[in-house]
Fold:
Amino acid sequence: MGGKTDVVKGRIKEAAGALTGNDKLREEGKADQAVGKAKQAAQKVVDGVKKAVDTVIE
Structure:
């Protein structure tokens, strides 16, 4: 899954956990959000490196 998908999934899980009083589900949601944000950050780095390499090659 992509980073944005993980963040959205995490928000949904966190909200569902809060509504049902399920602390485990709420924590899973927070973890999913953190994973999604990390994926997004990593993708930005990869995109930056690709852009730098393309600039050097040209």
User: Anything to note?
Assistant: The chain is about 90% helix and 0% strand.
